[in-house]
Amino acid sequence: MSEGIIPKDKDYLKLSKATSGYLEIPYFVNSELDRGYFCNNCLYFINKDDCAIVKKQGPDVQGKESGIIARHGVCTLWYPDETKTF
Ligand code: SF4
Predict the structure, then answer these.
(1) What is d(CA 24, CA 65) in angstroms, rounded to the nearest whole number?
(2) What are the tens digits of pLDDT across the range 36-72?
(3) Cβ count near 10 (within 10 Å)
(4) pTM of this prediction exceeds 0.70
(5) 70 Cα–ligand 1 center, Å
(6) In the chain, at which end, N or C, are there fewer CB atoms within 10 A of the end residue's CB?
């Protein structure tokens, strides 16, 4: 699991949501998030609502600000957490 691979106590330099291509599609909020291209299954997803390489704050590519990295979000830097995806 990424929680064990990526230290959570580092002050990483991060990309903005807009630069990373991040967005949240509300239709997927109640989906089975353990499969597919969601932040929930990304290697960089940490602390249940954060990302090791993308900032939580600021507008996404649709100009929306949620203040979190959502489990059902995704960006162009998605990389599989192979302990979750299959
Ligand atoms: S998909 Fe993008 S924003 Fe989501 S956890 Fe992965 S790198 Fe971070």
Answers:
(1) 10
(2) 999 999 999 998 999 999 999 999 999 999 999 999 9
(3) 8
(4) yes
(5) 9
(6) C
Structure token pair of residue 44: 């960089």
Burial class (CB in 10 A: 0-12, 13-18, 19+), 21: middle
Task: Classify strands 45-46 and 50-51 as parallel, antiparallel or unpaired.
Answer: antiparallel
CA distance 58 to 67: 7
- Rounded Cα gap, residues 18 and 9, in angstroms: 24
pLDDT for the residue numbered 85: 64
Residues 6 or more apart whose Cβ sits within 8 Å of residue 78: 37, 39, 42
